[in-house]
Write a structure and sequence with these properties.
The complex is a heterodimer of chains A (102) and B (464). Helix content of chain A is 70%, strand content 0%. With 102 residues, chain A is mainly α. Chain B is α/β, with parallel strands linked by helices. In chain B, helix 1 packs antiparallel against helix 2, helix 1 runs parallel beside helix 9 and helix 5 runs antiparallel to helix 6. Classes of the chains: A mainly alpha (102), B alpha/beta (464). The interface between A and B is large, with 84 and 117 residues.
C-alpha cells in the first residue's frame, strides 16, 4: 500500500517541533528578545504562499480577486522579513564583550 | 525548475532557519546565525519565483509590493527605540497572522493555483489545513493587535473581564470546529468567511482579560501561534520550508511562554484565564499599617557604594521607563574606575518581554558578560556589599519566600536582602504590579532613594 505524502509532511512537522524544542532551549536567556524577532522574520517565509497567490492571475489580469490577497500578504510578509532581520541585526550588534584593557 | 529540486531547496532553507536559531546560543555566533536566516529566506523566495516561472507583468508588481513592504520594514527596524521592542514584536506577529489569513483566503478562492483542486471542489485535507491556518492566523492577528494596543498604552493594561467569558470562549472554539466540519462537507465560501470572523473575535476575547504585566507571556504565546499558523499554511501549500519554520517558531514561542510562566510561578492556564491584578485586591488592603523606612539621598548612596568592593545592580522595567540605562552605565563606569566589582542581575520576567532588559543594557554599552541570570548570580548576593535596585520591585520581594499567603509566594526572586546593604531607587512606596507591599523596603539594611531613576543615578555619579 502506498503512503499518503501527507504522512511525510507530518513526519517533517513533528521532527521539526523536536528540533525546535532542543535548539530553543539552548538559546541563552540574554538573547530571548532577538530570538523572538528572528522567529518573527523566519515565520514570514509564508511569503512563499503569498507569491504563488499573487502570480496566480492569468497574463491579462494581474489583479484578480484571489491575487489581490496575495499582493496584500506580500506587503505584510515583506515588512516582517526586512523589519525582523534588520532589527535582529541591530540588536545583536549591540551585544559586546568586556574590553580587555580597562 | 523541477518539483524535486525546489523541494530540496526549500529543505535547505528550512535547515538554514534551524541554524539561525542555533546561532543564538551565544552572542558570538548569533550574528552569523542571523545571516543564515537571511540566506534561507533569499533561497525560499528565489525558488518560489523560479518554480512558478511566471515572469509576466504580475512579477513586476510582486517586486514592487515586495519593495514597498521591505522599505517600510527596514524603516521601522532602524527607527524603533529598543524600549519599544515588545510593541514592535507584537505588531510583527499580527502581520504574520494576517498574511496567513490572506494566503488561506486566496487559496480558497483560487485553489487551482496551488494544485488543490477547483473552487467548490477542494481536496478535503487541504481544506482542513486551510481552515486551521486561517483560524490560527486570524486569532494571532486580532490577539496581537490587542497586545500591541495594551503595550502602547492606547488601551488600558487593566484586565477586562466579564461574566461567562470563559464559557463564551469555549463555545466559540467549539463553533469553529463545527464550522470546519460543515465547511468540509459543503465547501461553502460563506462558512469560510464566518469561520475567519469568529477566529478574529476569539483572538480579541482571549487577550483582553490578560493584565498588562502578563504581557511577556502573551507575546511569547502569540509568537507560538504565528508559528502554528505558518505551519498550517505550509501543509496547505505542501511546502517543507514553511512546515519546518512553523514548527520551529511554534515550539520556540511555547518554550518562552513556559519560561515566563515559571518566572512568575504561575501556570499557563492561570495566565490565559487572566484577571491577575483583579484577584489580589484583598491581600493588598490587609497590609496597610505604616512601617518605618530609611530614606537617603544621592550623597548617602554614593558614600555606601564608594566603600563597597562589590556592587550588584538589579534593573527592572522602571529603569527603561525612566530611560536611565545610559546614566546607569556611566555610574557603573565611575564605580569601576574606583576598582569596585560590578555585575548586573536580571530576573526572567524583568521588562515587558523575554530578554528585554538584556537588550536595553546592551544598547547602553553594558558588556554582556557582566550581565547574569537569576540562577547564575543569586548566590552572590550574600557576598556582595551593595545591591542597587533600580526600577524593579516584585522580583526582589522576600515575601515570595516567606509568606505562603502572598499571591507571589513561590515565585523565584532575587535574594537582594542578603546583601550587606540595599539601595532601592523608587519614586514612592507604592506597591508594584502584583499589588503587594515589598518587605524589602522595611529591612534594616535597606536605604530607600525616592527619586526619578535617571536623575538619582546621575546625582550619585556626581557624588562618587
Amino acid at each position: 500500500m502506498e503512503i499518503d505524502p501527507f504522512i511525510f509532511r507530518l513526519s517533517i512537522f513533528i521532527l521539526s517541533i523536536f528540533v525546535g524544542y532542543y535548539v530553543v532551549w539552548s538559546v541563552t536567556p540574554s538573547l530571548h528578545t532577538p530570538l523572538m524577532s528572528v522567529t518573527n522574520a523566519i515565520s514570514s517565509v509564508i511569503i512563499v504562499g503569498a507569491i504563488i497567490a499573487a502570480l496566480s492571475g492569468s497574463d491579462g489580469v494581474v489583479f484578480s480577486s484571489s491575487s489581490i490577497y496575495g499582493f496584500l500578504a506580500i506587503i505584510l510578509a515583506a515588512v516582517n522579513i526586512f523589519g525582523g532581520f534588520l532589527v535582529t541585526q541591530r540588536m545583536l550588534a549591540m551585544y559586546k564583550k568586556k574590553k580587555k584593557d580597562k | 525548475m523541477s518539483a524535486n529540486l525546489s523541494a530540496i531547496l526549500y529543505l535547505v532553507s528550512g535547515v538554514l532557519f534551524i541554524l539561525a536559531l542555533r546561532g543564538l546560543s551565544s552572542p558570538e555566533t548569533s550574528r552569523q546565525g542571523n545571516l543564515f536566516g537571511i540566506i534561507g529566506m533569499v533561497i525560499a523566495v528565489t525558488v518560489t519565483f523560479l518554480s512558478v516561472g511566471n515572469f509576466s507583468s504580475g512579477f513586476i508588481y510582486v517586486l514592487i509590493f515586495l519593495a514597498i513592504g521591505g522599505s517600510i520594514g527596514a524603516f521601522i527596524a532602524y527607527r524603533i527605540p529598543m524600549t519599544a521592542m515588545p510593541e514592535l514584536v507584537a505588531g510583527f506577529h499580527s502581520l504574520v497572522g494576517l498574511a496567513a489569513v490572506f494566503v488561506a483566503i486566496s487559496a480558497f478562492i483560487n485553489p487551482s493555483a496551488f494544485n488543490l483542486g477547483t473552487p467548490g471542489n477542494i481536496k478535503l485535507a487541504s481544506l482542513i489545513e486551510m481552515a486551521i491556518g486561517a483560524a490560527v492566523g486570524a486569532i494571532t492577528f486580532s490577539g496581537s493587535v490587542i497586545a500591541f494596543l495594551k503595550l502602547q498604552g492606547i488601551m488600558s493594561g487593566a484586565p477586562i473581564t466579564f461574566k461567562g467569558q470563559h464559557l463564551l470562549n469555549a463555545l466559540l472554539l467549539i463553533l469553529i470546529v463545527i464550522l470546519t466540519i460543515y465547511l468540509c462537507s459543503t465547501q461553502s465560501s460563506n462558512l469560510f468567511w464566518i469561520l475567519i470572523a469568529i477566529s478574529f473575535l476569539i483572538g480579541f476575547l482571549i487577550i483582553i482579560p490578560i493584565g498588562g504585566a502578563d504581557m511577556p507571556v502573551v507575546i511569547s504565546m502569540l509568537n507560538s501561534y504565528s508559528g502554528w499558523a505558518a505551519a498550517g499554511i505550509g501543509f496547505t501549500l505542501e511546502n517543507t520550508a514553511l512546515i519546518i519554520t512553523g514548527a520551529l517558531v511554534g515550539s520556540s514561542g511555547a518554550i518562552l511562554s513556559y519560561i515566563m510562566c515559571k518566572g512568575m510561578n504561575r501556570s499557563f492556564f492561570n495566565v490565559i484565564l487572566g484577571g491577575f491584578g483583579a484577584t489580589d485586591q484583598t491581600s493588598q488592603s490587609q497590609n496597610k499599617e505604616q512601617r518605618p523606612v530609611k530614606s537617603g539621598n544621592a550623597d548617602d548612596a554614593a558614600f555606601l557604594m564608594k566603600n563597597a568592593s562589590s556592587v550588584i545592580i538589579v534593573p527592572g522595567y522602571g529603569m527603561a521607563v525612566a530611560q536611565a540605562q545610559h546614566a546607569l552605565r556611566e555610574m557603573v563606569d565611575t564605580l569601576k574606575k574606583n576598582d569596585i566589582k560590578v555585575s548586573y542581575a536580571i530576573h526572567p520576567v524583568a521588562g515587558r518581554m523575554p530578554g528585554h532588559m538584556n537588550v536595553l543594557l546592551a544598547e547602553a554599552n553594558v558588556p554582556y558578560d557582566e550581565v547574569f541570570e537569576l540562577e547564575e548570580i543569586n548566590n552572590d548576593f550574600a557576598n556582595a556589599d551593595v545591591a542597587f535596585v533600580i526600577g524593579a520591585n516584585d522580583v526582589t520581594n522576600p515575601v515570595a519566600k516567606t509568606d505562603p499567603q502572598s499571591p507571589i509566594y513561590g515565585m523565584p526572586v532575587l535574594d537582594v536582602e542578603k546583601c550587606k546593604s540595599v539601595l532601592f531607587v523608587k519614586r514612592s512606596l507604592s506597591p508594584g504590579y502584583a499589588g503587594i507591599d515589598n518587605d524589602l523596603f522595611y529591612k534594616e539594611n535597606t536605604l530607600m532613594l525616592f527619586a526619578d531613576a535617571k536623575k538619582m543615578t546621575e546625582d550619585i555619579t556626581k557624588n562618587l
